[in-house]
Each structure stands twice: as C-alpha cells, then as structure tokens.
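Worked problem 6 (solution included).
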Amino acid sequence: MAKPAVEFIARGTKLYLIYRPRDDDSWVHDRFARGESLEIKGTFHLNMSDLAEGQARRDPEDFGDEDMEMRFVVATAKGNYFVFKPAIVQVTVPVLVARDVNPKWKWFSTEAKVSVLKLLADLRPSRIVIGGKATDAIPVSEYEKLVAQFPTPYELKRYVQSRLSVVLRELTDATVDAEATLRKYVAKRVNAKPQDLIKPFRELEVSKYEFLHEKLTAMLVDAEGYTELQWQEQILDIVRLLNPKYIAAFTTVSIKDTLTGRHRQLDILLVDANGNIDVIEIKKPFKAKIVTETTYRDNHVPHRELAGTVTQVEKYLFHLNRWGTAGEEKLTKRYKEKLPTGMRIRIVNPCGLIIMGRDNDLTDQQKADFEVFRRQNKNVVDVVTYDDLLRRLDRVLKQLRAGR
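Solution. The predicted structure is:
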C-alpha cells in the first residue's frame, strides 16, 4: 500500500513532517538553492533550515522504494505540547498539538489546498490548541468534527451555482433551484450541536423553583396568616420569577376613568421589557369553590368573587385603552425614576391576569365548566388558580431535572 505524500511523526522532542515527492527530491533542493520555500498543501512553508539532520541532497539512483522521503522539523516540544514554528504555518497565533495525539495533514489543510489554521486564526482566538488537557484545548474528536465542516469542492461548486441561479432563473427558463440544492447538501453535512446555555445554571434554577414551590405550598396552608398586601407582594414575586418578561410592577396605580373624568385605582400594573403594560389582580384564596357547586341550567357558573373580579379588570383595561397617548405620557412621567433610562410606558391592548382560588377540589364537570369560562375571556383576561401555579412550578422542575 502506497504511503501518503504527507504525514507527521513524533520523535522525542520534535514533530517531523514527512514529505514524499512524486519523483526524487532534487527539484526541492533546487528550489532551496534559489532561495525559494517549499509550500505543501497551501499550509506549510518549508525552507532548507527546517530539514532534519542527514537530509542533504542525494543522488536519485540512491533512492529505494521506501526511503524516497524528506523530513522537516515543524514543531518542538514545550511541556505536554508540540509548538509549531510560526514561519512554517504562517498564522498570527500560536499553534499547539498535544504530544500524545497523532496529527494528520487533513487537520491543517483542505482538499482545495487551503490552510485550515489560517481560517481559524482569522477568528482571532488567543491560540489554537488541539488535544491535551489545557483549559482552552479543543478535544481531538471535536476538532475533527470542526474540520469536517469545511466545504468540499462539490459544495463550493454548488455555492457558485446558487449565486448564479438567483439571476439566471429570473432571466431564463432554467428550472433547477441550485440554492435549495445547496441548502439540502449543507444541512446533511453540518451536524454541529448548539451549546447548552442552560447547563451551567441548571442547578441554580432547580434550587430557585424548588424554593418557590415550597414557599407557595406553605403559603396556601397558612393563607390566613397573611394580610392582603403581604399576600399580593409574595405572589407577585413568584409570578415575575415564573415570567421574567416583566421588569417592573407598580402597586396602587391611579388611572383616569375616561367616562366620568374621575380616577380609579388598580392594584398592580406590570411593565414588560418593551414598556408595554398589563394589569394583574391577586386575591387570597377563599374557602368557597371557584365555581358554584349547584348548577344553573346544568352549568356550574363562576363564583361571584371571580365574575366580579373579571368585570373589574375588564373595566381597567377599557379605561387604559381610552386613556391612550395621554395616559402613556402621564404614567411614563410618574414612574420615570423607577424604569430604565429612556424607557417609555406604552398602552397597546393591555391584557389582564387574575390569580385567585383553587381547583384541586373540583369535580370533573366543574373543571370542564371552569375551563370553558376561562377560555371565553382568555383573549382579554387570563384566570390562573393557585393550583395552576403549583403545576407550572412542578413541570418546570421536572424539565430542569431531566436536563431538557
């Protein structure tokens, strides 16, 4: 079996590049004699000074079948790594390869004789480290996957065709969609997985949601021990931690009654990261069920407290929408110091959220009727029970613990 034209061999503290010319090595020495370097695969730039000892010019008749090769010292050992000579790889950052790995020429060059190292160096890492235990080392398996993503000559051809087809299909009756063909080909080749951004924080997130679940469970057991204001503040914290889009919450907010000219006072106004507002009502759980136990025309209807709260929130939303830009200016001025610099409060179809009641003791029919009522109002006012909150916390925990 023929030996490769280029390979690497480590001996002691030196890493050798073995080059096997097609014929003899006289033409290489002739280049060196003229002061020219030898470029191999568009990546390695070698000179006479890089030749290993005993590599002087030889008579072509002295070559045997197995010794038609030239050895160049391309890297020397420093600790657990071979460090490439900068003049040979001609990149702007150090290139290191672990001494216990077996580098291949395909690690450094593409089939089109393009330097992989130069392309990587253009991304400006502080250095390129392949294998070993250095903190910034790229594992060999991952590095090989990375190199495998470089475009093949076939892919480059498809890329050129896709650029041309955009214009050609507009001007002629060409039917081949080269751009779609390129996308399909690239999708098959590229198999890199996105970085798991949640992993470093998963344990902290689990601790957070465990705490919230335990806190809410304890609060529901001892609900009578809280004042209405204390209850609202605690539940509001849980809601914002479950839904981090809200960056601010203002209590006892005065808004204009656009019908009478007087003012109404809503309990809590939420502001999201874009300055849009929503209204939330938080009620302590009551002993009565959230829908009636008896039926009206074979339906369990909402508890009076629930129906009244929905109507109340709908009126708040009605007046906010009518208040419009004047209301935006008023609220922005009032809460300017409590919002990020330059943020403006916006009233754009605000929604309502009601948190009240329990559903853990409802019959199947009661749950079904309650769900019908809830969905009838969902586009304007969302009704969430405390058991809903517990379920959401529990499901978030299950997902985090499962690593999903």
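Discussion: The chain is about 40% helix and 20% strand.
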